[in-house]
């Protein structure tokens, strides 16, 4: 294997890690029904913990081009680093090699390959010199401007969805469009690319590439389900259909609360009014903050990995959602069973513990609420890499049988003068379930002075602090089995 070939493999391994998970943002009363979700906690080193998550995927890669490239790999998407479903579809011949390009200012923008089916469109783009040679890794055009657009157009030429500010690393970029996020959305017909600037060069790079889905559409099967179940918490679940395409198996589900359940949720909302560090959103937590866990089971009883359903789309402010959840495609010719087996819901919680930082750093402080055990392990001042300001960092262990998640705004830290410190970023790690059936999760959170919009600097640790936890997400068992016949 040549150095160039090793570089290609390394690039595609990196692709798998370049996933951004935007977090839920509460829609306003006048918002459209389908709300684009945006992240509101960011950091270079920390994994953000937000209110709820839905996946919008942008894939970026690093790749050197060599004369052996075409011979080495029939399809870019067949290599390690992409979802197994995308690799499988590429190996089966469902990807299309485009090689359409446009040249301006001595730089060529080329669409190398597209793989498209009714649930997603993947595009591989390349920038290179007009003579076909790759740009040097240090060349300033490796990142394009925010104004540059990659769009999908429908049959009328209207924009369906877009990706702005597509980034290249050493000449290659990958873009992924998720389809079907809007109800009754048509299939795209054209990939439209318009760049005004690449690096330090202004120009005009325009391409329109036809998107062909005849083969992938013919290989797609749709299983109408149209079944409804109501959980003991009063959540009405309607499974509309299961779609199996060359790249993925998609679950299309709708959820909403019964009228009886809304009365109970109203009481929970009252308990959360004025709580958490996101007070405007807190009353909506009981309605909106929930997830469903599921797995696929084979005819031999084998169980796949349990996952949480993703990409929900808000229909109203009170927990009415559309869900589209994609997995690797189910094997052809084999029956399976979709098992929705768990319900994860935010509930009001009452945990409060007062401590002195100097004593905590010598001896952990333990607080028990029911069967849940909280251990405050440490608190210290650290410097934020981006702002250069000092912040507090806490490490907390949570031992519980049913708490599955604690989101940042639910932690509230206050000092003796009434100053509130909000959690701005954090990380969570988990250990295997112990003999008592409890799982240990370690939370490491950064906190800033909430009196300042951008976070005020903390020059010293307060003498006394009170940590409060106003809500937690708990897991409840569920059993809904939906047969999926041979596809």
UniProtKB/TrEMBL annotation:
<keyword id="KW-1133">Transmembrane helix</keyword>
<keyword id="KW-0812">Transmembrane</keyword>
<protein>
    <submittedName>
        <fullName>DUF4179 domain-containing protein</fullName>
    </submittedName>
</protein>
<feature type="domain" description="DUF4179">
    <location>
        <begin position="42"/>
        <end position="128"/>
    </location>
</feature>
<dbReference type="Pfam" id="PF13786">
    <property type="entry name" value="DUF4179"/>
</dbReference>
<keyword id="KW-0472">Membrane</keyword>
<feature type="transmembrane region" description="Helical">
    <location>
        <begin position="46"/>
        <end position="65"/>
    </location>
</feature>
<dbReference type="InterPro" id="IPR025436">
    <property type="entry name" value="DUF4179"/>
</dbReference>
């Amino acid at each position: 294997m040549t150095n160039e070939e090793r570089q290609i493999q390394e690039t595609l391994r990196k692709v798998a890690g370049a996933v951004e998970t935007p977090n839920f943002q509460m829609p306003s009363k006048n918002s459209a029904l389908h709300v684009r979700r945006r992240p509101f906690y960011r950091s270079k080193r920390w994994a953000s913990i937000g209110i709820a998550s839905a996946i919008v995927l942008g894939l970026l890669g690093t790749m050197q081009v060599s004369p052996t490239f075409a011979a080495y790999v029939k399809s870019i998407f067949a290599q390690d680093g992409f979802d197994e479903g995308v690799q499988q579809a590429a190996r089966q011949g469902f990807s299309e090699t485009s090689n359409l390009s446009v040249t301006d200012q001595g730089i060529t923008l080329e669409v190398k390959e597209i793989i498209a089916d009714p649930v997603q469109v993947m595009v591989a783009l390349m920038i290179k010199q007009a003579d076909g040679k790759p740009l040097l890794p240090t060349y300033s055009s490796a990142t394009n401007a925010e104004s540059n657009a990659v769009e999908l157009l429908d049959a009328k030429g209207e924009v369906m969805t877009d990706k702005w500010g597509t980034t290249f690393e050493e000449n290659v970029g990958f873009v992924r469009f998720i389809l079907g996020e809007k109800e009754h959305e048509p299939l795209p017909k054209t990939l439209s690319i318009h760049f005004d600037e690449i690096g330090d060069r202004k120009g005009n790079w325009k391409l329109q590439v036809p998107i062909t889905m005849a083969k992938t559409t013919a290989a797609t099967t749709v299983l109408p389900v149209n079944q409804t179940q109501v959980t003991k918490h009063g959540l009405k679940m309607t499974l509309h259909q299961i779609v199996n395409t060359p790249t993925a198996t998609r679950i299309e589900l709708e959820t909403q609360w019964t009228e009886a359940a809304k009365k109970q949720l109203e009481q929970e909302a009252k308990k959360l009014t004025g709580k958490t560090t996101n007070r405007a959103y807190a009353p909506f937590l009981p309605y909106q903050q929930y997830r469903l866990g599921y797995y696929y089971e084979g005819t031999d009883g084998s169980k796949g990995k349990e996952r949480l359903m993703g990409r929900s789309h808000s229909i109203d402010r009170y927990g009415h959602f559309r869900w589209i959840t994609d997995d690797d495609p189910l094997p052809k010719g084999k029956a399976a069973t979709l098992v929705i087996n768990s319900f994860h819901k935010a509930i009001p919680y009452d945990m409060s513990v007062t401590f002195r930082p100097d004593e905590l750093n010598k001896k952990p402080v333990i607080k028990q609420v029911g069967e849940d055990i909280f251990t405050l392990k440490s608190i210290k001042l650290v410097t934020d890499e981006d702002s250069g300001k000092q912040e507090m960092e806490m490490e907390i262990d949570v031992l519980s049988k049913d708490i599955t998640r604690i989101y940042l705004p639910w932690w509230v830290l206050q000092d003796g003068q009434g100053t509130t410190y909000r959690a701005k970023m954090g990380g969570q790690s988990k250990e295997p379930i112990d003999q008592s059936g409890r799982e240990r999760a370690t939370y490491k959170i950064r906190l800033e002075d909430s009196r300042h919009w951008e976070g005020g600097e903390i020059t010293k640790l307060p003498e006394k602090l009170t940590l409060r936890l106003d809500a937690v997400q708990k897991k409840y068992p569920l059993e809904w089995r939906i047969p999926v016949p041979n596809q």
